[in-house]
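Step 1: inspect the first sequence and its tokens.
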Amino acid sequence: MTSSSPASAGDRLFAALFWFLPTRAISRAAHGLARARLPWLKQRLIDVFMRLYPGIDMTEAAQPDARAYASFNAFFTRALAPGARPMPDDRELVVSPVDGTLGAFGDARTGTICQTKGMAYDLRTLLGGSEAWSAAFLGGRYATFYLAPDNYHRVHMPMDGCVREMRYVPGRLFGVNPRCVRSIPRLFARNERLVTLFDTAVGPMAVVMVGAFIVGGIHTRWAGQICPPHRPAPRDENFSDTALEQAYYARGDEMGRFSIGSSVILLFGPGALNWQDELTSGQKLVLGQSIARLGTGA
């Protein structure tokens, strides 16, 4: 389901810039700048950012003093205060894994996923070419979430799950804002991404963390920083032998984070869940907000 309008001439012109910009060099520079610890520099970056995005609510942060952060990256990936995003009491509810905007969501009946109106991409390509992984989600459901720069940038579990496998998939670093989503075909299957496969009570679940222009890093709780470096070849890790207490994450637990914003795609197997009736593309969501109810699984 998607309510996105077609790309305008301005959208296409904006997106075209990413074909010519040295996106990796700029992203590497952003990675270093965001981690600079010079007090005057890091504070200048934080102050400018907060002026650009006046909606940032520091009262929700575990550390509400913007001057207390050691670097811009520490500020950007700040933790929330306990209780800022409560989980629903009903354990059958699947929740939004992020603060962000819901993009396209629906059923992957034909092995393709809707990116926006009139534009789709291949499920198998998104998952790094794995036929076994794509078969597990054929006929299942998907949802895409966009994290704007002023959103909270940690990613949490939408339901209970146990980490089974992880795959780093190299790719481009196009922007992933709505203008690029409307204009660049197969965007999410082209960009660098991290795919993590979980075992859940209703079958497999995949969480795809999509890299983007000036995203300074993708980090997970179980493997630390995955990128940078931006690798030229896929990287696979199997966690099936990991101790249960290390591999299991409950609904609402933090699973990873972005250093500068990007997108998250959730994939579920057939029969795993049923969307909430009121869910709409373009809807603003917060972490812990219900998006679906568990099904019976395949």
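Step 2: inspect the second sequence and its tokens, then contrast the two.
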Amino acid sequence: MSAFAFEDAVQPFQVEDARVRGRMVRLGPALESILGARGLPVQAEAMLAEAVTLAALLASGFKYKGVFTLQTQGDGPVGLMVADVTSEGSLRGYARVDAERIAQARAQAPAAPVPRLLGAGNLSFTLDQGPATERYQGIVALEGGRLAECVQTYFRQSEQLETAIVVAENCSARAAGNRTPRRAAALMVQRLPPENPPAGEAPSPAAERAEEDWRRVVALASGVSAAELLDDRLQPTDVLARLFPEDGVRAYRTRKLRHACRCSQAKVERTLRSFPRAEIEEFVVDGVVDVTCEFCGVHYRFDEPALARLFADGKA
């Protein structure tokens, strides 16, 4: 056990004897910063915590320069969630919640969070590396009890990668007024693509052994406890050594994460200038246009002189 806490970081690893790769992520202060000022209902907090954790987990599997975004859109009380991660490790998240409907959903079946809170809809992933590059995008239906199950389905159906994910969070257990720091964590294992035998030939003993190894790794990974995943005193190597004591586990370089929003005065001004002045005037209240960032809650105010300067280039 290390004296240094492992939090707000992703640990990639490989279970060498089983041809399995994986990643473990644990969020602490970054998650607290994302959720702490939002005032979301407990159920929505837990749902967004899982989305942000999965975004961090999945983004770390790409080599990219830009933004990885995970988004859910459905007809449930939590109609929209967005979590994104930059290539520099900046993390943020947002949930649009119908407070009245989510209060009603507490007593309604089914109990599983995806159908109860998100409803019917889609989970999508987007990797945006700028205008000069082609976007990577994946999409899967919101089917399953947990968001992690939807991600597993996506990998199996679209990427042909057998995947198992375990997610833990303490948000759903927090009562009103509870000051326990919010935490979330996840462990993912993925089977490296097998070598397929020539057409007409039976699987080799090595292929059969690889299949057995994969099933064993999934069973062991599924046995990790929420306490192990969330305890920042436990290093990932400690957790992995407990899970896979008979396999060689190679840990790679850790990737640090932090909460940071990308909104700015300049970006808001560009957005406003993209609309005709007449449309912007419809949002003027008491001589001011108020713009609030949905991710961080920062307010940007534009009075009449500021709007006049903004549209001084003559755009109608």
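Step 3: confirm your contrast with the notes below.
The radius of gyration is 22 Å. Residues 42-59 form the longest helix (18 residues).
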